[in-house]
Structures are given as C-alpha cells and as structure tokens.
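Late entry, written up from scratch paper. The run itself happened at the end of the previous shift, but nothing got recorded in the book at the time, so transcribing now.
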Amino acid sequence: MQTGRILLIDNEVGLCRMMEAVLRDQDHQVKTFTNPVQAVAEFSAGDYDLVITDIKMPEMNGYDAFDEIRKMNKKIPIIAQTAYAMENDRKTILDYGFNAFSKQKIAVKGDQIQNIPIVESEDKVAVGEIAKDLYVMVKKGQEKEISQEVEVKDSLTAPIAKGELLGNLTVYNGEEVISTVNVVAAEDIERANIIVRLWRKIFN
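Output as recorded:
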C-alpha cells in the first residue's frame, strides 16, 4: 500500500485524533491542526501529498482554507469532509471549487514529435513519440495559461534504439511546470555509414 504525508484540519479535537489514529495505522505520516488559520500559515508547498479539511470551522471555513492552500500548491489533492453535510452543502462544495477543475488532454501515447536532431544519423533528424497519455487538471478560466514545450536531450547521437529516451514534453501553467511526459524514439535510429559521416565532416 502506498503511504503519504497528510495534512488534517478539523476543529473537533476528538474527531481529529480519531482520524489521525486511523491514518497512522495505515502507515501514513499525519500532521493535524484544529485551527485552520494556523494550518494555512504553516502549510508549505511540497511538504504534503494530501489535504483533508473540515468545512464548517470557526475563524476560517474549509472553503477559505482551500483557496489559501491552492495559492501555494495548485496540484495537491484536497478532500472536503463534514459531519453536517446536507444536499446544499455538497452542491456548494462542487460549485465552489472542489469540482472547479477541468481535465485537459495534452497528448496521448504514440503522438509524434517531428524533426528531433540526432547526431551521426542518416537523416540528421528523427521522429519521437509520447511515451504515455498525458492529462492535466486545469482550473476553469486558466485554460489559456496552459502551454507546452518539447525539451530534447543534448547531443543525441545515433545509434539509438526504439523506445530510448530523447527528451520530455513539459506542460506549463504560466511559468509553473505542472506536468511532464517522456518523449522516446519511435523507431530504431541507425548510424549513418562511414562515407556519409566523412562527407559531412568535409563539407559541413
């Protein structure tokens, strides 16, 4: 079972301790806060894999905590939970932001990347392909901020076997990297014969 680092926020001390015990029993690392303001103040992006927060809390409710944490880490999963949830609460959660992200397809396995420079290959360039499907979660309204860039390894030299790593497709939200996927050789890339290589050295 995969374990993780969990931030747990709930102003009910007894419930917080019970949930902490259950999570620790599953070998998770848990940091608990009964004060959501303090939890947000001490939150550090990269320190946690998951946030579990109550919704109905004094001083700062779960919606506001969600907003503040999202400003520091746009990718961390957040689970909303409350003992007082009614149908309108569930709809509010969905409408408010826990469902405010759309799944955007960036690339699918096998998509081709053309004209990747390969030193000493017959054609000087080769075709790469995306190693696996790539989707990202994008906050609605930020779709135009998403961009992508192919980053090729330095001095790729033939021969190169099919499936060998050529570089990465990197996805950005503004200037922030939000995901990457490997770009691999779509086929074997043979080294040019000695005559071709000598010809290039003389005339290039």
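The first strand starts at residue 5 and ends at 9.
(Scratch paper discarded after transcription.)
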